[in-house]
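Section handout 9: paired folding examples.
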Amino acid sequence: MTAAKQERDKKRGIENPQLNILVVGIPNVGKSTFIQNVSKGKTLKKANRPGVTRGMQRIVMTPKITLIDTPGILPSRFENETIACNCAAANAIKLEVIPRERFASKIIRYIYNNYPNAIESLYGIGTFAPRPIDYEDSFELLELIAKKLKFVILGDVPDSERAIEFFINDVHQNRFGRISFERPIEITSTIELPPEDDIDFTVESDLTIE
């Protein structure tokens, strides 16, 4: 594909065209790890938290190909709380923007309903309730986990706040294994784009976002 593009560039009088490949995504989804893998181990800063890549980093792959790592991008506002919780669960945003008990309730419900035995196996509890569970059930499940971990106050009252913090830490440490907090969108129809040769790439477009 790049060879064909370079040939077209030569016909347009563009000598030694440079191919810049921009790697873009939300924070903490593995952009730097991906680049490090394909760039044969060239060192980039990476960590399991948002905000590690502060500016653009350029990695020269060949004299004509450069990879560009970018800081994570996010919308200016989330459409709903679920999206915000999913991003926080993946360490893409800081959890401070969401009430911790609501975050724990939503995420523990999602894991319990979609990944059978993940909760039960990690905390050594039996089947809590038939799936799917609801908002109220999630707090009862957290209380059960508190009892199992012996997080109690005043003798036998479950310490739910401590259980919530323990659960949140387990989520961020990936102790439930490989979990996707979103499902792929089901594609119901497709459109066919014109062949690349029919597209005039020299025409400038107004890409201003109002």
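Moving on to protein 2 of 2.
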Amino acid sequence: MSIPNNTDPYFFNEINPDKGITKGLVEFMNSVDRDFFSETKLLFKHSQESKKTELILDICCNFGLTVGLHHFNSGSWGGFNSADNGSKPVLSFLETFNRLNQCNDNTLELSEISLNFLDTSIIITQLYDQSIPEQLEQIITKVSEHFVYFTKGLTEMPYEIFVPVFEDTLPDIPGLEKEQNNYFSYWGLYFEEGIKHRVMVYDLENKQFCNEDLFLLE
């Protein structure tokens, strides 16, 4: 994710009432840093008219993706805690974000989160209200499950992974893109190729790459 320039409507780590977040932000950021072993940057923009504040989290980890997945699978990374009684896992990241929302009069939306590792970045965009906090654990789970496949048998690491991308042929039906499982259909991957980059689309259902010309990519 690129840091906006001075004319961009997003503000970088500015905390004051005029920008729509007044309480709980420091605690939230400290929680993210602790749970992800990271240094986290925050960008946000506030609409006074709608009383809504959009957030972008840039989580920077000083280790590679495989190390992050190892800690995630062992239950020590990301703040994802399983309940002792075997019930549905409790997502502390979601709980922490909900507490931040409850502390403020404005509605807070996490519009994008970037998980930056030494060897790659995973950029997740919002599909519907609170989609990222609700789906983050499952997205990381899918990254772990499909790691061997999208790295081409552990031979090549993409330097960016965009979650999700959509087929250009999808009909323009309002609300279609808000289906939860759309996070787990197609991802856009960028691989280095000399001085250029190679764009590939990964099909999670079939565990294979497909023609990127049929997809909407940034």
